[in-house]
UniProtKB/TrEMBL annotation:
<dbReference type="InterPro" id="IPR011990">
    <property type="entry name" value="TPR-like_helical_dom_sf"/>
</dbReference>
<feature type="domain" description="CHAT">
    <location>
        <begin position="670"/>
        <end position="925"/>
    </location>
</feature>
<dbReference type="Pfam" id="PF12770">
    <property type="entry name" value="CHAT"/>
</dbReference>
<protein>
    <recommendedName>
        <fullName>CHAT domain-containing protein</fullName>
    </recommendedName>
</protein>
<dbReference type="InterPro" id="IPR024983">
    <property type="entry name" value="CHAT_dom"/>
</dbReference>
Amino acid sequence: MLEAMLPSLWATQGEPTRIAAWLAVNLVDPLALLAQLRDTILDLLDAGAVSEVELAVACAWAVAQATQHPEATALAHWCHGLALLNRETRPALSHLDAAYAYFVAQDRRPEQGRLLIGRAGLLGQLGRLDEAHTAIRRAAECLAGAPDAQNRLPALYMNRSDIEGRMGHYEAMLTTAREAEALAVSHHQPAAQAEALINQAFAALFLGQFTQAEATLERAGAVAEACGSAELRARVAVNQARLATYRGELFTALRLLDQARTDFATARIELDQATVALEEAVLFERLQLPLEARRAALQAAHMFEQAGLLQEAVEAILSAVRLALALDQNALARQDLARATALAMQSPLPPVLQALLQGYTAHPRFQRNAAERRLALAQVAAAQATIADAGVLAEQLELELLAAALTQHARAAVRRYQHLADMAREHGLDGIEQRALVGQARRMSATEAWVPLQRAADLAAATRRMLPSEELKASYLTGTAPLYAHLISSYLQAGRLEAAVQSLLEAKGGIWAELAAPSADSLHASLLQDPAWLSAKTAWDYWRAQMHPEDELAYQTLCAERIKQAETTLQSLARQHLRQRPVQTLPALASIQQCLPSTSVGVEYLVADGQIWAFLLTADAAVRQVELGSVAQVTQLLSRLTLQHHALGHCSSPAQQQRMATGQLAASERLLGELYHLLIAPIIATFAADVNQVIIAPDGPLYSVPWAALRDHTQAASRYLDEEYNLHLIPSLALLAMPPVPQATGTPLLLGWEGQPALPYVVAELAAIQRQFPSARQVYPAHLRDLHWEEPPTFLHLAVHGQVNPYAPLLSQLSLADGPLLLADVLNVPLAGTALVTLSACETGTTPERGGVALALAGAFLSAGARAVVASLWPVHDQATSLMMEQFYQGLAAGQNPTEALSAARAAVRAMGYAHPYYWAAFQLLLREGTPTVAVALPYIL
């Protein structure tokens, strides 16, 4: 075959003059050779052989230059256009146009027909739909009666199908794609068959036929695999990711996108790699993971830049700028803007994209004084005029937010924000309305700001109630969101303490109220059964992806109209389905107080604006507020403790570690004592004499505090906090008044794997637990499949390696024998009613920098339905951990509840010679529901 000759042809002949000599000596017809190269490129593209395609194009141009024949040049353009067909749309069209012009001049209709098929597809991708429709009709006319016309028909019908879809004719798209498949099968073109199946699935989605789309994509995947085409596998995976997204299976969607990006990289298709990275950025942002979203957007920008698509690169960078500003990373935003500006100087931007770049450059955070803000406001106004002319509403309102922030007079700014909020509400843009309301509140007096802030909080809660549970779990921020922090502060300044506490409970407990009832899943499931919803959702996603600032205005207008139609349908259907289910109401403050035992105190912590507050709830007294000071002091003390633990964990021998632990003990006690005086002492001063139980709801970095190890280091006779009080940790005091999940009754399960480096005490730890609970099922080595069951286990124990990923929390993991159990996987493990999950591993209770306890492994198990989780705050000592677990389960078997058993286990480990808190204070018990003294008992395993 010719492709087998390409390397030797190029290697031996090299430059055009030598190729001309070779052609003459070997009596090779250059035009026939170029025609063969053209057809070979099609075969190589189907096989995903990118290197060979590039070599074939190089040979084609060398032959054309050697012969200097106009037809040879036209054929070389044809070869080059085919090679770029699915990679670089505009350059590909330019090459095919050059070839087409020659064959039109020569009145060669069969060649015109073949070229028109490719041109029609490219014109459709660029949004020039009338031209595309004309081209595909003309292609059919030119090919009529041509000798090899039948072989070209699958491609013709495929491109016609694509154009019908872009024109909104979805029934026609489906019918034509089916005809394309039948033609591809009859002409033994499996790659064309796979592409036709992908188009069928796409059309089925537009028509609301979810099950059919899913089955069709499975067939397409099987055909793509049989072809051995990485590019086709990737295209199937991208569409399967969209299906997973519509189902609310966002983690599955991320995995499929990752697979698609890998396959596109294998096929060396940078443009599609970049597009997939942008889709990943959108998903990460939807999951409230802005750091990951920004990295994905910048990755996409880099790949666009490498492919020479500078306008697309600028668009991706501006997404990264927006995310950096949302993260308060002003320096990074400046850096991104400088990069975008540099790219814009190399390639003139379309007006809309240029306006967005100007708008972000004028952001108020980059202006140092009033004069600069006035100039920036004028710059934003000019950008707004450009955006308004293009009719791109969302971008127009984004710039209006900047203009309002730059407005110097408070009353004028408030009016501007109010007008913006009204416009956003009118068009169903809840996110922009929330931001406008927050901006308005910042320019109002503290005693009035709570009004727009409460409206913004209500919008956030309504959005949360409509999320499928997977998205709900992953997007939950335990650290109070800035919106709620501002609202709480406003209520406090207005003297409305109870309203402030109720807002705090909503901020930290609302997520758990939603998870307590599967309302979000019920809503999503009912929507998926509604063909109108699926059709509108597909249209909304598709047309949003199609609309780019660099596109022609007519196509942008078409996309905007389709998006608006889909949004109207989605909003209407969502409201209908929302009325079909009850709203999960957060318990009132009085209800929570009634659930508190008379001798207990509930402490709801708040970390906001760099300060720490504690709100104290009891059964029979008014709420009390205590201001505790700067959070920076706490984080500094925790950092010093971390350094101590790191040093102990890296000792060369047990003897050296014991010596270091003894030497560090006093310093460690001082650090813990300082935490005690910052976080606990001011609160204890308000306790009644008979208080014996403290229920703590941490916030943000306070989840990293080893609460049980705190004590007054200035008093020699003082006891640790968990010795002084019955100590409980819970994400929010609101959970105390929520109805309990029915107790699971499945067989208790013990899973272990020593991993690498080997954990020598895992086997002994599992054996010790099973001696206490003989009915438990022990699995060693444990595999991922062992986490599948018909009935959730009564309790679950995992003795494995744990690894936190601080940059991508969803990828934190527990190591099992056949691979990692990711945090993203844990969120979907069926654990409803499991009384206790024990994570005997390192750092399983560690929270990420952004995103709270639900993005720690411990919180993921709680979100999955466990009623209580034991987890660690730092890399733990293997032998001391094994001893603690043995003592812990002895206590459970003796009838203690988990809180009591863990406290007793800590004391036992200290008595065994492990006095340093490093050995015994890492493990904490985090509760999910109910009155702790009742809900955490294990009645089915005693």
